[in-house]
Amino acid sequence: MSYIVLARKWRPQGFNDLIGQEAVVTTFKNALSSGKIVHAYLFSGPRGVGKTSSARILAKALNCLQRSDSEPCGECRSCKSITQGASVDVLEIDGASNTSVDAVRELREAVKYAPSGEKYKIYIIDEVHMLSTQAFNALLKTLEEPPAHVIFIFATTEPKKIPSTILSRCQHHSFRRITKNMIKGQLNKIIDTEKINIRESALEMIAKAADGSMRDALTLLDQATAFSDDITEEELQNLLGLPETEIISNLSKTILTGDISSTLSIIKELTDRGSDLRQITKDLVEYFRNIAIVKISREAEELLEFSQEEAGRLRDLASDVNIEQLTLLLTELLRLEGEIRNAVNPRYALELGLLRTSFVKGMTSIGDIFNMLAESKENPQVPGPESHIQGPAVIEEKKTAPVKKTAVNNKSEIPDREELWHKLLEDLNSKDHLLACKLEEAKIVNLTTTELVIGFNGGMSVLADSVRKNSSVIETILKNLSAYNLKLKILSLPGKKTKKSIDKIKEHVLSEPIVKDAMKIFNGSLIKVKSLEDESNSNCAD
């Protein structure tokens, strides 16, 4: 007997065999138990997640001669003929091969006849979005008033291409991508049954490479077992052309540090090994997306389906980069992925794209430049944020040296502000990671025994509002850490600039080498200089 591939051998035969589609299965079971069967279904979702298999299972359940509740028996004449594809009353039609209006007209004539031996005549049309507009129009009347013995089941990966007139006449069920852990669990079950020897790490790679498709996972497993009886992770990487995780990690580190020399060396190594640079770029995008998620979310392990060890490695990388830099890097990598997909020379396109990313690490935001210029000696008329803090707790002494602030406290010694700030961020991070990330972008302006004053530069004004809304949470932590009933005061850059001073700042900004490089790399231009202080006055809360 010829070999049956795993994707066919392990194709789901009942609702209980469907992996990762619990909502759809529950709906079908309830509909079958209550007899609420409609005349047209539409199954949509990614490839390999069980759409056509579900259509066959539903067809078996509807025509099963010995059905128990909602699950087909799989043993009766009807179930066996549908499983073998031999039933004359369950017809599977490939929409891609039967796109013409003539094919649909033949179908319209055929539905008039009663089923040969089953309860229902069922038409399963796969890739239904491939039908022509004329074919869809010819199908409308039949869908609107079908014979009682006919049921249509449409399957598609692109539901947006189906006319709304067809969609409105179907009960739509969306199939989801199957999670990596579910795929891995099913693969473990299969390798135990089939007596396949494969390393756990290699199985993890297959589950990840399947990208939510159970069929793709089984196809990859078939390919792996054909290669070796005891396949390792390294062998699987070479066989499937997948990049090594360690290489992607190392390449990401060089990008995050702006080490373009090491980046080019890794690209040369990958090219020499014959790696698919398009796949490398795709994996880089995914890797940086994962870094961004662990940076902003406390539930990263659940979102990414990663172990604590894997998430920990990503957090180590994320610790040396802020959210803005990650956003720029990810945006540039997404742009690069599109460029390299159709590049004549992928290596040159990848090198140029990663050269652009190397500048991100050394970039200073426009808001930071404004802040530095406002505090520079060249602009003594522009006051710094500290000079606008008023109250008996602060005395400013103007000398030739930079402004010195001496806190006056009539009660007791003021806590060490750097130590308090560090403990505050650490404590808040354990309670609200995203809020801690936002607060980390602020700078301490002043600390007394009654008040902690922090400031956000103009580029961070959007974070100031969010932190201000959660000030009560932060003040509670401050009280626990310092034993003082500290109030949180949030400032932005105060004061107004005249047109003359703004023009002067614009001149300084345009002369900055970093700004020049940024404008050149991203083909940008400086259109307008807006005073951040004007905005900050309206956002500033006492």
Concise account of the structure shown:
The chain is built from 26 helices and twelve strands. The chain is α/β, with parallel strands linked by helices and 542 residues long.
Textual characterization of the structure:
The protein has 542 residues and is of the alpha/beta class. The chain has 4 domains: 6-174, 3-Layer(aba) Sandwich (Rossmann fold), CATH 3.40.50.300; 180-240, Helicase, Ruva Protein, domain 3; 245-357, Zinc Finger, Delta Prime, domain 3, CATH 1.20.272; 368-491, no CATH class. The protein has 26 helices and 12 strands. The chain has a 5-stranded parallel sheet with strand order 2-3-4-1-5, covered by helices on one side. A 3-stranded mixed sheet has the order 10-11-12. Strand 8 and strand 9 (404-407) form a beta hairpin. Helix 8 packs across helix 9, helix 12 crosses helix 14 and helix 14 packs across helix 16. The protein is elongated and about 90 Å long. The N and C termini lie far apart (82 Å).
